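Researcher: Re-running this chain for the archive, since the previous output was lost when a drive failed. Same request as before.
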Amino acid sequence: MSTQPTTPPAISPLGDLRAVRPHQATTLAVAMSVAHRQAALMREILAIHGKAISLERITRLPGVTVTMINDLPVPGTAFWGNGHWNIHVRQQDPPETQRFNVLHELKHIIDHPGRRATTADDACLSDADEELIADHFASCVLTGEAA
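Model: Regenerated structure tokens:
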């Protein structure tokens, strides 16, 4: 009996992270819990052990390009362009701030399909809530704990 080598399925970290979230509008408490679970999964994907994490490790995520921009007027921004996700962060910020901002923007990318599907009539989360959730995700990835 001959056996064929098995090829593992292609890994899609963004898909794996998006699979954790509910597919309908949600409450802030549920969204914070989801962000915590996604942060734990992100630490697994990036093989982060302990609290030391380099910006280089965070930027290895397939399908996302991180660029440091001189004099960016905001701490960070995320957008789709040239066939992949882009995150721009301010070059002048300290490395710990850059790490936080990259993860914060990554959370917006993870949640993007859900935001697009939600209309103003059934949205449960405000823009301020979305920012709070992204901060929570970033803090949880960086510390390995609930923020």
